[in-house]
Design goal:
By secondary structure, the protein is mainly alpha-helical. The protein has one domain. Helices cover 46% and strands 8% of the residues.
């Protein structure tokens, strides 16, 4: 299961966010850049350090699994300690889970090439996108999945519109539930809608569970509890006991 809580990777303290970017230095690699968050004890971890191991795990696992179920694929990876409760590694994980299940369900793609392209694109999507860009990295990752399988470019006609339609459906659903952010909730929403879209548009039917139940909520203090469609029925968040 994702280790730690949705807090600082260095010390476990809560994070604080700024509306305007400030100069920060990564506690792990020493890189100086601008960022929007540090922990209350002053630690900053850059996106590259935050997601490096999670992205590596994602690509390795997706190349060897034969699962047709993108929820099963993503949860297998979410169980690993390199996938934190929240973070930019999810921006690769969601699209990779969809590409892999799509290929295994009969989709006509070169999976290794598709995953390599997804990696390049998803690594450009920073942490905190959901709060600062007016979109969500999980929705963008699902959009990247569809742009790859549909062959979309900025100059395409039909495929261009298909990508916008998919991400708009995902964002509309996310907005219904509101925030704060949760990479598990937004990831599950993105996969559910994108899997249905793949069947609608290309006739590729991925396997999906009858229902999705989140087992990661104890590590997210900002969990929506009963407002989240994936919160286990009758469960009590550890912070509420």
């Amino acid at each position: 299961m994702s280790i730690g809580k949705a807090n600082c990777l260095v010390c476990g303290a809560p994070l604080e966010y700024w509306e305007e970017a400030q100069e920060v230095t990564c506690h792990i690699c020493g890189k100086k850049e601008t960022g929007h968050s540090i922990c209350v004890d002053g630690h900053y971890v850059c996106d590259a350090c935050h997601r490096s191991e999670g992205v590596r795990l994602t690509l390795e696992y997706c190349k060897q699994t034969d699962s047709k179920n993108p929820i099963e694929i993503c949860q297998h990876m979410m169980d690993d300690k390199s996938i934190y409760p929240n973070g930019p590694e999810h921006h690769t994980l969601i699209g990779a889970s969809l590409l892999t299940a799509y290929k295994n369900a009969g989709g006509k793609i070169d999976l290794e090439k598709a995953l390599a392209e997804l990696q390049k694109r998803s690594m450009c999507v920073p942490g905190g996108t959901c709060g600062f860009w007016g979109t969500c990295g999980a929705a963008v990752s699902a959009g990247q999945f569809w742009s790859i399988v549909s062959g979309s470019t900025p100059m395409q006609d039909v495929a261009w519109g298909e990508c916008q339609r998919l991400t708009s459906r995902i964002l509309d659903r996310m907005a219904d539930y509101g925030g704060p952010r949760c990479c598990k909730r937004t990831g599950f929403i993105s996969i559910e809608i994108a899997a249905a879209y793949a069947e609608e548009m290309h006739g590729v039917k991925m396997e999906m569970p009858e229902s999705i139940t989140c087992k990661y909520f104890p590590r997210n203090a900002e969990c929506l509890r009963d407002r989240c469609p994936y919160f286990p029925e009758g469960a009590v968040h550890p912070n509420d006991k």
